[in-house]
Write a structure and sequence with these properties.
Largest sheet of chain A: 9 strands, mixed
Structural class of chain A: alpha/beta
Largest interface: A-B, 67 and 67 residues
Oligomer: homodimer
Radius of gyration of chain A: 22 Å
Shape of chain A: globular
Strand content of chain A: 15-25%
Number of helices of chain A: 10
Chain lengths: ~375, ~375
């Protein structure tokens, strides 16, 4: 069962073979604490996004530090997290098709399960499946507040779905999901703020119309690491779905989180550990972490604390490193901040959590590969 | 043990939940046969690259159709394939560090194992490890014939490494690896041909110098799906390392394989099966296969046999589809040709092999996640 384990507990960092996915436990815990403090002080619920880590251990740790539960994106992911002991989970996504709908309803026998909808037929399907399992599913109407992905248009379009949910005996209309995913990644602070202000306005209009129709819209959920302060200050959202803040990544590192102060708010705590495997040519070294060790969809990884070195390109199992001073030796180990944390984590079976140079915990990536 | 299984044997295609990684078995077998026929007629050995499929079942099938063995890129990958019954394997890469070197030598007790080197100290390490395991490792000197990745410069630089290998009692100097990885992906036929001609010239010069030093250079290995006919016609290479030809992908589909005839030579046999999960807005649909269901490092996937539809963007678990005619309905299933086959396969635990609309085989991706 314990396949592909990267290290032993107590192993010094130097002895971990590469590539390996490491968590700096001190930085990770500070990130968790910082967000927990913020949400407590802001009086807003935190429902951390588990698609970032896919780990039941991390989910339970976040919940132990005040989160009300977690989100995930897929039914199979939710199953893996519930199997690992998570008791309150929002599939922050539409769940379509008989197989998935029935699996979701079955899961609600074992945990509190919430889900999003943007289609009336899907409401009928969910209601039937929940009835057949003898459960009540809590359902959010998803609105598209600018991300251009899932969700109905903001405003009046949400009202018939909310009404249909209140009429469905095995479903409970819980509120709306209004997540502006695209805005998380707008580099400029002011532009990002503007995009979220528009999202807040659209969500507010939607809530007003639902309320005017005589329905109660208890939950307004959304927000991510790049924007959570805006939604938290809106007076409208009462639940935040931040995920990446626990790890951060090179892409988030390039975003101006706080008006050009260079303050990234959260620390990089996730690293791909890699070794130099070839340096036969001057000016160039090759490391053993390529496309199968980190995801390049949001750009190349950043090499930690080695000025002069740059990770310039990836092939399947190789990383090209520009090393103009020929500083690297064969076998030298480097820490990479991956370009995008979520799909990088999904490549690994385990996290090795490190503190004071020693492996302290091994956490399985419980929902790795669970994309159904 | 059987985790994350996507289907049952005998299941109709329509019943497979999504996302799932499918092989069209007829197309796959025709691809395997076509390359086997070519290499037999050309009188050249085929050592298929298993980094493409990471599957012991597929490796053994290729060997049963005439391949002499397989290549892979990592020691852990080689272990998984040998565990699955592969008896002859080249780690077509440098293997650095005590842990990996010893695992490689231990593996040579169970299978024929070959490896590449580009560093003299690494030769000493491999020799010691082989001695401690009582095995002889077969070793190729890797030369950089233009890919700009691993390998010593072509020509004289290879000679001292070859000599050192012949003096190492537990190693056998077997020849050279001269793989022009970058050239596989040059779109233009003539430019690609030129790049490979330069590689062949450099490999030829290297062989001449090794031979002039009184050593026998038995193996010249390299080539990929984008260039194999050139190396095969060189009179120099005697082993081809093609991998992608069994599956193909959208990136290879964009390469002019045969002087603008549009003849891709091999058929797409690998597909990501996906469902429409949201179509709440006109002109756009969202499918359930995003960055965790296929790799976008070489561009977006292509939607099969649905003119007018285009996969335009991926987020973690969503794919954006342009559908100007609003042809798609919720739950509709589509076949995607992934942008890049190798890292896409590495996201899945299983292949479902389909023939005549029914699942005929389930093959584990034996070496999934084996990046050490």
């Amino acid at each position: 069962m314990a396949k592909n384990v990267p290290a032993d507990i107590g192993m010094p960092l130097d002895d971990i073979d590469t590539p390996a996915l490491l968590i700096d436990l001190d930085a990770f815990e500070r990130n968790v604490e910082k967000m927990a403090d913020f949400t407590r002080e802001a009086g807003i619920r935190l429902r951390c996004h588990a698609k970032t880590h896919k780990s039941a251990d991390i989910a339970k740790y976040q919940i132990s530090r005040g989160a009300v539960g977690v989100c995930c994106q897929k039914v199979s992911e939710a199953e893996a997290l519930v199997d690992g002991g998570v008791a309150d989970i929002l599939v922050s996504n539409e769940v379509i098709g008989d197989n998935k709908v029935h699996r979701l309803a079955a899961l609600a026998r074992r945990a509190r399960v919430l889900v999003c909808v943007d289609d009336p037929e899907n409401i009928s399907d969910l209601n039937r499946a929940a009835g057949s399992q003898g459960v009540v599913l809590e359902v959010l109407v998803e609105i598209d507040v600018g991300a251009g992905r899932c969700g109905v248009s903001p405003g009046q379009a949400a009202v018939p779905l909310a009404k249909k949910l209140t009429r469905a005996p095995n479903l409970k209309f819980t509120g709306i999901q209004a997540y502006q995913g695209g805005a998380q990644h707008i580099h400029d602070y002011t532009e990002r703020r503007k995009a979220i202000d528009r999202a807040i306005e659209r969500a507010g209009d939607t809530v007003a119309r639902i309320t005017a129709a005589g329905l109660s819209c208890d939950t307004v959920t959304g927000a991510g690491t790049g924007s959570y302060r805006f939604e938290a200050g809106s007076g409208l959202y009462n639940e935040l779905q931040c995920g990446s803040y626990i790890f951060m990544d090179a892409h988030y590192g390039r975003i101006d989180m706080d008006r050009g102060t260079g303050n990234a708010e959260f620390e990089n705590s996730l690293f791909v550990y890699t070794s130099v495997m070839s340096n036969a040519r001057p000016g160039i070294a090759v490391c053993d972490a390529g496309l199968k060790a980190h995801s390049v969809d949001s750009g190349m990884p950043v090499i930690v604390d080695r000025p002069g070195l740059e990770y310039t390109g990836a092939s399947d199992e190789h990383g090209q490193i520009s090393d103009p001073g020929d500083a690297l030796r064969l076998g030298d180990k480097l820490f990479l901040v991956p370009g995008h944390c979520d799909p990088t984590v999904n490549l690994y079976d385990w996290f090795a959590g490190v503190r004071n140079g020693v492996v302290e915990v091994l956490w399985p990536v419980s929902a790795r590969g669970m994309c159904v």
